[in-house]
Design goal:
With about 375 residues, the protein is of the alpha/beta class. It folds into 2 domains: about 190 residues, Glycogen Phosphorylase B (Rossmann fold), CATH 3.40.50; about 170 residues, Rossmann fold (3-Layer(aba) Sandwich), CATH 3.40.50.2000. The strands form 2 sheets. It has a 7-stranded parallel sheet with strand order 3-2-1-4-5-6-7, sandwiched between helices. The longest helix has 19 residues. The relative contact order is 0.11. It binds ligand GMT.
């Protein structure tokens, strides 16, 4: 099948997932065309059957805000025609589903059409999509999609609640992980060697947006560090990175905090980690939690959003109310001080991630969905 994929190409779970999906589909023999403003960050090298079409947002002095959504619609329309795409799959509703709808309308005028799948990832529903500036167009675009998927049961329920979207059936297809990549045994110990082999490594991976509550990461870590010889490794960048570093200094743990910034390949880092902290406000899924679990890293996070679907409290990690960084720190310190319990939890995390979120099984669900829309 010839499939067009649009996503945010920069760092973030939805772009990562969309890119991994495209790669997996190409490995299965499909032709995949990424249509976006920049090459997706997890797609840096040549891969057979994968093509990249850059959206050029024309500049003009009149445009304080260049209309990316229109340029994207035009590029989608062009690529569908020139490469005879059979389906468009957009990740993150805003503005991708709207641009795809415009492209479809343009095609219809010419007597054509292309089926559209929209995958909802989280803040396109929970934050941005409910902003009055975007709410009605988000609802409209979801309703105009031929099929809509959400990455968790929580996000599906939130979509139906927030948009009262009776006309749209939302199917849950969860995110997935490639167990060969997120495999603790596969990588070296460079990070562990750097921090010292006996020190525990507590990690946080995110885009450092306010929703991630990175100050709680630092506060929970400071509590862990009071009793456990450990370091905090921050991976990623975003608006709250500086604040996290300042909080680390304020709490006296700056010498035990390593802020790495953006790193494209997180699997080798996770393979060195002992614990992942994700004290987020409301994560629709928590792809970084899944990648940690698959790497045998227990997760301490919040019992909010879709995270309880991914992390099983008491078995693969621990979940606490939003803001309770003291309980998170205490649970982390207890776990890291009990090697036998940590080993059991690490093994359970890797096994559970493989059992429930294996790439092959989840990608097959997307393929089945595509086949219903593009019968051969
Ligand atoms: O974090 C965002 O603002 C958007 C989005 C992204 O592009 O990273 O994250 C969402 O999609 C991920 C992939 O499905 C999910 O794992 C994240 O939980 C979700 N973020 C939120 O719900 C905050």
């Amino acid at each position: 099948m010839k499939i067009g994929i649009t996503c945010y190409p920069t760092y973030g779970g939805s772009g990562a997932l969309a890119t991994e999906l495209g790669i997996a589909l190409a490995d299965r023999g499909h032709e995949v065309h990424f249509i976006t403003y920049q090459q997706p960050f997890r797609l840096r090298s040549f891969r057979p059957r994968i093509f990249f079409h850059e959206v050029d947002v024309g500049r003009y002095p009149l445009f304080e805000y260049p209309p990316y959504d229109l340029a994207l619609a035009v590029r989608m329309h062009e690529v569908v025609l020139s490469h005879r795409l059979e389906l468009l799959h957009v990740h993150y509703a805003i503005p991708h589903a709207t641009s795809a709808w415009i492209a479809k309308e343009m095609l219809r005028r010419e007597g054509g059409d292309v089926p559209l799948v929209t995958t909802l990832h989280g803040t396109d529903i929970t934050i941005v999509g409910q902003d009055p500036s975007y709410q009605s167009i988000t609802r409209f675009s979801i309703e105009r999609s031929d099929r809509v998927t959400a990455v968790s049961e929580y996000l599906k329920a939130e979509t139906l609640r927030a948009f009262g979207c009776t006309g749209c059936a939302v199917e849950v297809i969860p995110n997935f992980v490639n167990p060969a990549i997120f495999d603790r045994a596969r990588y070296g110990t460079e990070l562990r060697d750097q921090v010292g082999p006996d020190r525990k490594i507590v990690m946080h991976v995110s885009n450092f947006r306010p929703v991630k509550r990175v100050l709680d990461v630092v506060r929970a870590f400071a509590r862990i560090a009071a009793t456990v010889d450990s370091v905090l490794v921050l991976v990623g960048d975003g608006p709250d990175r500086d604040a996290a570093e300042q909080e680390s200094a304020r709490l006296g743990v700056a010498d035990r905090t390593i802020s790495l910034g953006r790193i494209e390949k997180v699997a080798p880092l996770l393979a060195n980690a002992d614990l992942l902290l994700l004290p987020t406000d409301a994560e629709s899924f928590g792809l970084s939690a899944l990648e940690a679990l698959a790497s045998g890293v227990p997760v301490i996070g919040t019992a909010a959003g879709g995270l309880p679907e991914v992390v099983t409290h008491g078995e693969t990690g621990f979940l606490f109310p939003v803001g309770d960084h003291e309980a998170m720190g205490d649970a982390g310190a207890a776990l890291l001080s009990d090697p036998a319990r940590w080993a059991r939890m690490s093994a359970a995390a890797a096994a559970d991630a493989r059992a429930r979120y294996d790439e092959d099984r989840i990608v097959a669900r997307y393929e089945a969905l595509y086949r219903e829309m593009v019968p051969r």
